[in-house]
Design goal:
Elements lengths: L2 H11 L6 E5 L5 H10 L3 E4 L2 H7 L2 H6 L3 E4 L8 H7 L2 E5 L2 H14 L4 E5 L16 H11 L3 E6 L9 H13 L4 E3 L6 H6 L4 E4 L1 H4 L4
Parallel strand pairs: 1-2, 1-8, 2-3, 3-4, 4-5, 5-6, 6-7
Helix pairs in contact: 5-6
Bound molecules: pyridoxal-5'-phosphate.
């Protein structure tokens, strides 16, 4: 199966046009991604700032009106590059990073959209704001820093039923008046949509297995 037909199959399954498919192109090269760009797809996901700088040409992003989504952890020293390259950041999860982003936005006069990542299953090794600090952190980003936080993102634990986590993320978003939910990957995107996802992040289901 090729990338375009994988994408079209998934896209045809998702009849709700308010759901944005993020084609997660990490580890794949631009020439492998180009067929989707030619098809007119606009939303692509990457995990690393450096890989994004090496791969994506700013002129191409502008010409084709492509929106890049940063899904992976953002190091403080890469904040300026991230603000330059990305339209959305899904991994906002701490005060220090939020502050750096708000400074970089003003300096560069580029304003992004944010998802706050929640450590939904309280896994010690995982990124994301702790559940008991989520409400305060959301309010800090929105009200004090005026970051354009549009929703929440989660990455449930592997090999357990993700549904309780999807439901809980939706509850936290509703409580904080946030309307978007970034949840669901290749294996579980249909379930995520059933439970309220508005952005799904699909990598291997489109591009094939990563090395
Ligand atoms: C890689 C990645 C994805 C895509 O995963 P697939 O299982 O290949 O669809 C989605 N979200 C995040 C945060 C990722 O790092």
């Amino acid at each position: 199966m090729d990338i375009v037909s994988n994408f079209q199959k998934i896209s045809n399954n998702i009849i709700n046009k308010n759901i944005t498919i993020i084609a997660v192109s990490k580890t794949f090269k631009l020439n492998q991604i180009m067929p989707l760009i030619h098809l007119g797809h606009k939303h692509f996901g990457e995990n690393k700032v450096q890989e994004t700088l090496d791969k994506w040409i700013p002129d191409l992003l502008n010409e084709k009106n492509i929106h890049l989504h940063l899904l992976g952890k953002l190091q403080s020293n890469k904040v300026d590059d991230a603000v330059k390259m990305f339209s959305y950041i899904h991994s906002l999860d701490n005060e220090k990073l939020a502050l750096k982003l708000s400074i970089a936005e003003k300096k560069m006069n580029r304003f992004l959209k944010y998802f706050i990542q929640v450590n939904i299953a309280s896994e010690p090794q995982k990124s994301g704001i702790a559940l008991d600090r989520a409400d305060n952190f959301i309010s800090f980003c929105l009200n004090e820093l005026k970051l354009n936080v549009i929703g929440l993102m989660c990455l449930p634990p592997m090999s357990v039923d993700p549904v309780p986590f999807f439901k809980q993320l939706k509850l936290i978003a509703a409580k904080n008046n946030l309307k978007d939910l970034s949840m669901g990957m290749s294996q579980d995107y249909s379930m995520a949509i059933e439970f309220g996802a508005t952005y799904v992040r699909i990598g291997s289901g489109i591009f094939g297995e990563r090395n």
